[in-house]
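Field: sequence (string)
Field: structure_tokens (string)

Example rows 1 and 2, in order.
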Amino acid sequence: MQTIKLRQQGGAIIFTIPSHTVKRYGLSVGDSIALEEHDLSFEVRSLKSKHIPRGSFTVSELLKTIDQDEIEHLNASVKGFGEDKVGNEAW
């Protein structure tokens, strides 16, 4: 989640969409977005596409999504797996 400050421009209050988010969702000036209000929040959605095109993430962005605790748990759960292998078993 990002924190973005609201600004005044004329009679409107506006916020800026960061350039990496604009690029990620393929947005450009003049595009329409949907604003859905909830009780204590609101949701902004692109009207251009329902999915993120393949290849839209950088390696750095993908690596940030790795949950280190989950990796440690996975490594612990498979520790010793295959150590008692005797022949040509496939695992």
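Row 2 begins here:
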Amino acid sequence: MKLNDLVAQYSWNDIEQPFIDYYGFYFKKHNKRIKKKRLNRFKSAYELLQTLKCHENHWRILVTSTLEDGENYVDVSSLNGELVKDQSHYNAQRDIEYAEDEVGFDITFTSWEQWLGMRIEKSSFDDFSNEEIVAHCLWEMTFNTFDNQIS
């Protein structure tokens, strides 16, 4: 299943609550008017996403939950089949236990059309609902900008 399939299947009303559940703490310090305005920016971004054409590609989106320093956080990365051992900076003594793992890449600055064309890694569905996966992708896509133009 591609991100485009999920985005086409769910409206903002379906995505808003999971989005708030995971990322609402970023808005707690603001008054109600500002919270609504900020949420409306995410809603507008999501509605724009629903109008874009996906660019088919071989990348896959991986959504994972990670416990670090006693706190749970969600990571969204992309995979393309490249293994750790194939990296130019691979060190067999240091990295041997990860040699056969796929390298996760940051996709924050990837065009939204390319995001839409990426398949969702099957393991992502083990820990997250469809709506949660979309919410996490939206957060990651808009983390640095609400503008789809990648320079």
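free_text_note (row 2): The chain has one domain: 3-141.
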